[in-house]
Amino acid sequence: MPGGELLEIFLLEAWEGLALLEGSVGDLRATDRNDDHELGQVSLIAHRLRGSAGLYGYPQLASLAGLAERLTESRPHLAPGDRETLLDVLELVTLGLRRALTDLSSGQAENAVGLYFAEVGGVERLQALLKSAPAAFRTVHPASAPDAAVPDAAPAGLQGELRTFARTNAEVYSYFAPEVREYLEALRTELDRGAQANITLMFRSAHTIKGSAFMVGLPALGHVAHRLEDLMNAVREQGLTLAGAPSALLLQGVTLLERMLLTAEGHDDAALTADSERLPARIQALLQGDAPTVERAVPDAPVPGTVAGGAQTVRVSTERLDSIMDGIGQLVMSRARLERQLDRLSQLEEALQASHARVQRVVRDFEERYLNPDMVRSDAPEAPGEAPGGLRGTVSEVFEELEFDSYDDMNILARSVTELSADLGELRGQFRDGREALRGEADTFTKLLRTLRGNVVRTRRVPLSQAYARPRRWARGRKDAELVTLGGDLDVDAFVTQGLSEVLLHLVTNAFTHGLETPDAREAAGKPTLGRVTVDARRRGTLLDVTVSDDGRGIDVDAVRAQALERGLRSARELEQLSNDDTLRLIFLPGLSTAREVTNEAGRGVGMDIVASTVRRLGGELLVQSARGVGSTFTLRVPLSQQVVDLLTVRVGPYLLGFPAGNIAGLRELQVTDVQEREGQAHLPDGTPLHLLQRVWGVPSPTGTVHAVVIDTASGPLAFGVDRFEGIAEAVVSAPGPLLDSLGYVTGTSVTPDGEPVLLPDAAGLARAAVQLRGTPSVQGEARSAAPSRRRLLLIDDSLSVRRVVSRMLERAGYTVVTASDGQEALDLYRQDQAFEAILTDLEMPRVNGFEVIEDVRRRDARVPIVVMTTRAGDKHQRLAFQLGASDYFSKPVDESLLTRCLERLLRPA
Which keywords does the record carry (predicted)? Predict the structure, then answer.
């Protein structure tokens, strides 16, 4: 019986297979008809489980899985009663398999699997089924059994290699090919844009195709993608123009990869082998400076799904479910607007009721004054005589004697008002009944919408083990290290699983390639020679925590600082002020890598950038911890659901922010005097760090009561001060877009039913932004201290192109720039006119170099800021520059935002 690594490999495969088996049996139970396809799926999955259990030495498991295989391989068509019995038997088989795998996972031996199956009634039901329908379970001919069909003889060479892989690794190919096609389509789209193509996006696409191909075992695709990556790297970093031959070769490479996929699916392509050898040679020639021959274009790839002699296939992706979720999101917004209209109707009813009450008061006054039974009688004196018709007196006198009421215009008006009041009361009642009926329909709509949302969310969920498949396959052949994955049985949204699949691949690759030492180095350090990388996933309410840890050498913080300076990602002064934790986060910047050499797996500084951007796209946060000689841990915290979430909206000045309700650990209301100050950082009384968001958004800070939202983050609880709490409601979340994404602390946006925008902040990024703003003057103070005139700078560089590019950067930021071509010209200018508020200088220049400029200027003025911009990033150059009096130190090429941020800091009034 195996143990250690073999046991873990078996359990990973077996748990994944059991999940698929349970799903297929559940699908059969959900329908009331015989389904040959689902029965075939059950037979196929059980066949794989049986073979895997037998291979790893678990005969009882193999026998129980074999039972499910034999019962379904003939695709039995049964009467309704017998069909129910068959499903009962299959469900009891899955229970037995789950019990056995649970025992193995807890370290126990393979116990009496068959005895457990008998105790739960499996044997009894099986005997009844075979007695009732014995002919239905005859063994089918081997030619029609699962995995028994003899394939056509595959051609030799590259075509044979591709077809053999697609046939023997059908499950892997089912997700590999669609993914590659998506990236190829992205490459084609960018190539069609010509000079406006996003070369970084193209580079990432080729990089991902390369990594995926090498991981699944298709080196032919990986080598072609690697050459395309080299070509795009030359365009991105070495100044090679994308137009002309490079664009043509890239397009040929994309088409060649598409042809490889179609060949794997059965399409005949006699020229494939020759073209796959010729194209990399042409790219290499171009990179070496030779003019490549592109006289023969690579043939267009056939349309996918039209493979000759093969059945057409349709790939159903999560895009359709995504579109359904988009529709549900629109329904959520529509329901929210309906709720708002109902609230307004309630307000109208209250106003109508108040108006009705006022009318009733007026009516009572009229009744008291004009409809009193003792109406006003005539006071005229009696006149003798008879009225016409023999009556004694006038008609009015006769009415008065009969005590009839007399009416005038005011009486008639009073009665009309009384009738109007009655009509108004009846109308208000009808309005109330209609509103209540509408409210009832809205409640029913809400319930149905929540049910629909829940069903779609559950439909989108897949086992997290699917995200583990790619890193497991990549690490399976390693002899010097092992990969341990935990939590693969968690059900996660497919959108999250797809994103995590790529993230985990990069993190695991990085851990094996950079994190773990060689066996000899580990032994010398007193560690086990076998390195270990662990991926552990756990659910925390509505969040998913995934940690990727290794027991390797840890991240070299000094190397990260050196690379950040050399690549112009941060200045020397900024790096000095960064803590080790903040420095570790620099590895997520594009282009930063501490690898000493570029390999097929890593070294170009792309992987961690992809990890950070993907986690941000998932609306999550990323935490990195590392200790030299101990190892590194990456913690990913992402929401389990996407698109539609419950948000707590809060108000900060005129702005509306939203925090996912599942992330909230608590709400606090306290006085400003209760806030504790420790080492310049505000804290709640319980010690939770408090960051006032009024400071980040540039609005007045609270003077009385502080309203704080406590967020549970991967690094611990964080509190954020806001003006007031608004409420919790369902909201549709959208990506922040490139403009807001650049802020670093916004993960999404939403809109209220009234159309007001809502920003969804990233708690950890928001805390970092608040810390960076600590100690800076207020927005109002900066506005008052800003000088109305443009500030003058002196720029010194012997390169004309550098002077022009940097001058434009500074002029866009509002500065007036005076340039000098070397140190001597700069000193001459400075001696004549010292009204420069800052000096920017290169080091290597003719006549007078940058060090001499710094030394000369410092003798005259000790306060003017001097910023060094150079290609020399070595420690000795930095030390000498700072010793002479430099204010900051940059490596070329200079990032515009970095340079302007530095000047704002240096020129800020004390």
Answer: Coiled coil, Kinase, Phosphoprotein, Transferase
Q: What is the mean pLDDT of the chain?
A: 75
Residue 785: closest CA among 909, 698, 601, 616: 909
In this model, does residue 153 exceed pLDDT 50? no
Helix (H) or strand (E) holding 773, with range, is: helix 763-773
Which residues in 714-740 are b (16+ Cβ under 10 Å) and which e? beebbbbbbbeebeebbbbbeebeeeb
For range 172-176, the mean pLDDT: 74
**Tens of pLDDT, residues 604-637:** 445 677 787 788 777 778 888 888 888 889 988 8
Torsion of CA 812, 818, 820, 826, to 10 degrees: -130
Burial (CB < 10 A; 0-12, 13-18, 19+), residue 200, is middle
The model's pTM: 0.47
Q: Are 782 and 763 in contact (CB under 8 A)?
A: no
Q: Do 221 and 139 have their domain in common? A: no
**Half-sphere exposure for 59 (CA within 13 Å, toward CB):** 0
- Residue 713 CA to residue 346 CA, distance in Å, equals 40
Residue 862 shares a structural domain with residue 753:
no
Distance (Å, rounded) from C-alpha 147 to C-alpha 153?
Answer: 16
Q: Give burial (CB, 10 Å; 0-12/13-18/19+) of 820.
A: buried
The answer on 447 and 590 residing in a single domain is no
Q: CA separation (Å) from 534 to 11, 549, 553? A: 15, 5, 15
- Could you tell me if 204 and 218 lie in one domain? yes
Asked which of 639, 666, 687 is the last residue of a domain, the reply is: 639
Region for residue 773 given its phi and psi (left: phi exceeds 0; alpha: psi -120 to 50; beta: otherwise):
alpha
What's the burial of 137, exposed, middle or buried (CB within 10 Å: 0-12/13-18/19+)?
Answer: middle
- Cα Rg for the chain, rounded, in angstroms? 39
As given in the structure block, the two tokens for residue 244 are 């002309």
Examine the domain organization and report whether 660 and 732 are in the same domain.
yes
| Residue 841 within any structural domain of the chain | yes
- pLDDT recorded at residue 536: 92
Stretch (H or E) spanning 898: helix 896-907
Indicate whether 379 pLDDT > 70.
Answer: no
714 Cα distance to chain centroid: 16
Beta-bridge partner residues of 725: 650
- Tell me how far apart the alpha carbons of residues 305 and 185 are, in angstroms, rounded to a whole number: 16
C-alpha 506/C-alpha 503 separation (Å) is 5
- Is the pLDDT at 375 greater than 80, yes or no? no
Pairwise CA distance, residues 493 & 459, whole Å? 9
Q: Do residues 568 and 898 make contact, with C-beta atoms less than 8 angstroms apart?
A: yes
Residue 315, domain member (yes or no): no
| Rounded alpha-carbon distances, angstroms, from residue 123 to 50, 119, 849 | 19, 8, 91
Number of domains in the chain: 6
Q: What would the mean pLDDT of 378-397 be, rounded to a whole number?
A: 51
The C-alpha atoms of residue 458 and residue 670 are separated, in whole angstroms, by 40
Domain endpoint, select from 111, 144, 177: 144
| Distance in angstroms (rounded) separating the CA atoms of residues 112 and 60 | 8
Q: Amino acid identity of 476?
A: R
Same-domain pairing of 188 and 124: no
Instruction: Give the CATH number for residue 122.
Output: 1.20.120.160
d(CA 87, CA 427) in angstroms, rounded, equals: 61
Determine phi and psi for 549, rounding to 5 degrees: -125, 150
Residue-range definition of the domain harbouring residue 188: 162-301
Assess whether 357 and 478 both reside in one domain.
Answer: no
